[in-house]
């Protein structure tokens, strides 16, 4: 029988009533002729409670024990989901990560799935069971310990099962009904996309559209697992939600698919930094070690430094990071200067910027997207502070007070409110 | 190194502060030179919450899924206990039942331990770990599913580990500081026992002194595991609590060690029941099938029935059971009469009785205990309704309103307030 993977996140299994609603959706797919693998998260709030206990017990906790404690939330949901399905006369059985087993690396708290044993679950399907309920977010290390995959890891569990079982599709049920052209809270014209490519979804996920975990999209792209994002809070059918798929499945695509934003960005500029081979490594090495997530980087052209001493090449180096990492970044850079690893005249910090990006695979074959973007922003009087581009994305840093205006202007400029 | 088993029940690990207090006791034993195996229950209230969810989801639940859900409470405590010990610089590691593994039967919800693999834990002790924290109450079935041992099963887990690892002792930490000569809420003269034999403890456990699960005492007796019951809420040392041990370890024992009581008993009498071979089976078979826990049974001598028809032998048959099982008992007996399996003139029910018992291994070698007991009760005007005896116990059913008075009178009569 064709196998479908269905994943329900924490708000979709928040209590027994929500678990029943989710189980109804599973039953409907069984009735349509699927064998179903259901991946469940912990009931909303449970994982936070467990993590809180671990942190209170041991601030520098042993990750092996963290994983043993925190994984219990998903185990509870898995058993309750199986019981709920049985009550609906759907033959179901639950599995914890070690039971399948889901083999992972030993990187406790951030393990990677290395393989999934199909045998035991295949045998149950052959016996007449119609649903295997899997506790998400967890696995088994080579040492026989429980591992967890990191926050949002249940999405990754779902995609890994879809790949291992050659599932027809992997449906991610969540509290939104799909992927939008932009954040509907910012633009009333935001429109739900019917389809989006893996590449675009990856750019959107890393740009702050927090619907899918980036790793799960990467995995889906690698194994060509068709992902569907849809709401567990609404009636749904075969056409609901947004399909994340290979671009071959997307007939005629717009040049730009979506406008993303990231509100709390900071722009840091090292003024008159000595320019020599290895200077970028000398700057960004310490930042990485300090856990600063550097995003955009811009280096101006070099010039001769004015002033005393031997002539030297200098430049300004600008980069962005989340505002809450500015303190760490400043400390790391000042320490590097104190050690004599880098030299700069000043560190200018602007914590009042936001990032706005347009994303679309159509950019590959269409010129003029950047020009159209900059024109639209200029027409609204929005000054661009930093620009960064990739093959399918253009991002700009702007003053935070213009963020909503910029998103709306770009949404209009690329006519994203009109159907594909 | 000598191995000590320490078990902490639900109230002893009710929150993070209680877990720390328990961990302090473990650390003290490590400092005394023990390698320690710690058995933990779920945090107080957690198991009830999980059981409630299962019952609400599926009143006739699949016991395999019940076990998968309910066992998660102990897993959380085990991880938190290991983290707490690590914070105290005690090398500790947690183990869930399937990890050890603890092999059990497949009787989900009431599984029996069949064996414990020492290898993995021995290896950790050899590596320098000083404490193995084990999630109590659970195990692994031959089919690779999680099993639970039934309520109070963590005591059984503790004794099984003590037997498997030849532990010097198995300390059961709970919310009382030992085994008393009688219930201190009934008699202010109740005195804590320093030692008590397995046999006496078994009689007391089944008579309503709810400190230790009966199965765990049976297991301790079979494998000669020295059990100690003591409080996790007080400072304790090597002499605290009550030692439950082989009678060889008890030098000079009193004739009677304790007075037990069971408040909510009912007395049922089948009046003028036909007396023939097999009649007891015809009565008590259906009661057992209906889940009635029949305790005491008394059959009067037979006599010729008066009245019409062929002469027949008749008798009165009296038995006791918990009051909340009277409805079930009545239904089962009336159904048996309706089927013609038994014949009786009336079923008399007295739900206002209690059971009071004296227990002591000294009875084996001392005559006159029954006479002394009955004299003491008669002196207080307490009428005895039913008597039952075993080798080390005499129980009587009496009117419930006399229960406290009877307990106090017997405690005085056997001088239980005086030190052993």
Give the SSE map.
Two copies of one chain form a homodimer.
Chain A: E1 3-8, H1 16-31, E2 35-40, H2 46-57, H3 63-70, H4 72-87, E3 92-95, E4 102-104, E5 113-116, H5 119-127, E6 131-135, E7 138-140, E8 146-148, H6 153-164, E9 169-174, E10 195-197, H7 198-206, H8 214-223, E11 227-231, E12 242-245, E13 258-274, H9 279-289, E14 297-299, E15 303-304, E16 313-322, H10 326-338, E17 346-359, H11 369-379, E18 384-390, E19 393-399, H12 403-413
Parallel strand pairs in A: 1-2, 1-9, 2-6, 3-6, 9-11, 10-12
Antiparallel strand pairs in A: 4-5, 7-8, 11-12, 13-16, 13-17, 14-16, 15-16, 17-19, 18-19
Helix pairs in contact in A: 1-4, 6-8, 7-8, 9-10, 11-12
- Proportion of helical residues of chain A: 25-40%
Number of domains of chain A: 2
CATH architecture assignment name of the largest domain in chain A = 3-Layer(aba) Sandwich
Report the top-level CATH class of the largest domain in chain A. Alpha Beta
Most extensive protein-chain contact, per-chain counts = A-B, 36 and 35 residues
CATH topology of the largest domain in chain A: Carbamate kinase
- Main sheet of chain A, how many strands, which sense, barrel? 8 strands, mixed
């Amino acid at each position: 029988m064709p196998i479908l993977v269905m994943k329900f996140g924490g708000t979709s299994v928040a209590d027994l009533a929500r678990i029943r609603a989710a189980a109804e959706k599973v039953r409907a797919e069984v009735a349509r002729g699927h064998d179903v693998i259901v991946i469940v998260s912990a009931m909303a709030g449970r994982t936070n409670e467990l993590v809180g206990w671990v942190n209170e017990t041991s601030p520098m906790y042993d990750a092996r024990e963290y994983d043993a404690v925190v994984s219990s939330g998903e185990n509870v949901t898995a058993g309750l989901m199986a019981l709920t399905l049985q009550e609906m006369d759907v033959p179901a059985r639950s599995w914890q990560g070690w039971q399948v087993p889901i083999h992972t690396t030993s990187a406790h708290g951030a393990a990677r799935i290395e393989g999934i044993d199909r045998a035991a679950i295949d045998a149950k399907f052959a016996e007449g069971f119609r649903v295997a309920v899997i506790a998400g977010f967890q696995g088994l290390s080579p040492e026989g310990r429980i591992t967890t995959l990191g926050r949002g890891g249940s999405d990754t569990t779902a995609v890994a099962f879809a790949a291992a079982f050659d599932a027809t599709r992997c449906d991610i049920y969540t509290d939104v009904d799909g992927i939008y052209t932009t954040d509907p809270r910012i633009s009333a014209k935001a429109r739900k996309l019917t389809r989006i490519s893996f590449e675009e979804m990856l750019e959107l996920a890393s740009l702050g559209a927090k619907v899918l975990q980036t790793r799960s999209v990467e995995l889906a792209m690698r194994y060509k697992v068709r992902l569907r994002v849809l709401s567990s809070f609404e009636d749904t059918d075969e056409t609901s939600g947004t399909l994340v798929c290979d671009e071959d499945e997307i007939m005629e695509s717009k040049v730009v698919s979506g406008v993303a934003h990231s509100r709390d960005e900071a722009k840091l500029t090292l003024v008159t930094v000595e320019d020599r081979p290895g200077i970028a490594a000398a700057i960004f090495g310490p930042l990485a070690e300090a856990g600063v997530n550097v995003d955009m980087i811009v280096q101006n052209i070099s010039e001769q430094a004015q002033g005393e001493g031997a002539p030297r090449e200098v430049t300004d180096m600008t980069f962005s990071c989340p505002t809450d990492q500015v303190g760490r970044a400043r400390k790391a850079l000042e320490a590097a200067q104190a050690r004599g690893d880098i030299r700069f005249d000043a560190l200018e910090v602007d914590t009042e910027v936001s990032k706005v990006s347009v994303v679309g695979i159509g950019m590959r074959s269409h010129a003029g997207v950047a020009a159209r973007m900059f024109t639209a922003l200029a027409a609204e009087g929005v000054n661009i502070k930093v620009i960064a581009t990739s093959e399918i994305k253009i991002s700009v840093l702007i003053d935070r007070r213009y963020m909503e205006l910029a998103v709306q202007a770009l949404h209009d400029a690329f006519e994203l409110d009109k159907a594909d």
